[in-house]
Specification:
The structure is a homodimer.
Chain A: H1 6-16, H2 23-35, H3 38-54, E1 56-57, E2 64-65, E3 79-86, H4 89-98, E4 103-107, H5 125-133, E5 139-142, H6 148-161, E6 167-170, H7 186-194
Parallel strand pairs in A: 3-4, 3-5, 5-6
Antiparallel strand pairs in A: 1-2
Helix pairs in contact in A: 1-2
Chain lengths: 199, 199
């Protein structure tokens, strides 16, 4: 008979289902929970249930929120004439960390990927077009990832939006700040050269 | 007003309190929970509560179990005359994975560390001595970590146990299987030389 503790194995299995968590890490995390006071496990369990039950998509930008409108859409100080289109809620968090953007967002919840059977209808494109029709939006910033699917999504949307007379822009390509030219791939370097600015 | 979702932040904070989980990983794990069906969060929450409430120390070997005796101590096939002394429950799991050991274990729940104020009284030493007094134990294998504290704990316990006429052994030191001599430190290599076996 092997060393077998059903409740511990179940907790390890739950940790292991998380992305990027392997068997050994899952075991370490589960044992950490066992070592801590019971309040710890209780608070963690409550946080899981609360997060899942209270968080849904913002009625306007489709980002995550526990209210009707997310804190960005509800903020009267934000510039509603600029919409930054991203694929995932985590991209909104990434832009907010820069503290450089005062417009609003629109989360597509994915990118167009015919191989995975994801077309525009599976994304929050309809909701984006609805926002464009009844407001004075001046610029759409395409901020999908610089991947094949991200590019395809950006160019698909830009073909739909341009006829409405709205300016469509794309994030700049170039060398990452703090990076090393030696490690930049040739496509990035070519784009950085192409998009060079006078100093 | 920043992008702020209280239930999400709380879940991120809970993940971040786990060992080896940084801010970015915590965010990724929390967002994964949000993306999954609600049953997922519910099962995870239940696993946390169950693991913490049902698991306690085995009455005999002080390892983790959800019964009175752990599955190893309860197994009549295991050899009770050999006790492998380890510092943590995870060490029991490590030995069990080898499938090479058919004796029993004793978990100290720590090592002697005067700097951290941990002496023998803070460890499960009393319980080990009790096991030795009323059974026919023939060998104690000291399997604490090969660190200063692990060594000190092993030699402290061996000084206590030897007078009882019980054989005390220590895990072999040497080069790890599959390792590279070039990366072995001089102490390990010296011990491997010292403990060489005829082939």
């Amino acid at each position: 008979m092997a060393y077998n503790i059903a409740p511990l194995n179940e907790l390890i299995a739950q940790f292991e289902r998380l992305p990027g968590i392997g068997k050994k890490t899952a075991q370490r995390l589960a044992l950490n929970i066992i070592e801590q006071p019971p309040e710890r496990a209780k608070r963690f369990a409550e946080a899981l249930i609360n997060a899942k039950s209270k968080i849904h998509f913002c009625k306007c930008c489709q980002s995550l929120t526990d209210m009707e409108l997310c804190s960005i859409c509800a903020d009267s100080q934000r510039d509603r004439s600029v919409i930054c289109v991203v694929s995932e809620p985590k991209d909104v968090m990434a832009f907010e960390r820069t503290r450089e953007f005062n417009g609003t967002y629109h989360v597509l919840h994915g990118v167009i990927s015919p191989l995975d059977g994801i077309g525009p209808d599976q994304l929050r494109v309809k909701e984006l077009m609805a926002r464009l029709s009844d407001s004075n939006v001046k610029e759409i910033i395409m901020a999908t990832n610089p991947t094949v699917e991200g590019e395809a999504t950006a160019s698909y949307l830009s073909r739909m939006i341009k006829p409405l007379g709205i300016k469509v822009t794309r994030l700049a390509y170039g060398i990452p700040v703090g990076g090393d030219l030696e490690y930049a791939d040739e496509f990035t370097l070519a784009r950085a050269l192409e998009g060079r600015n006078e100093i």
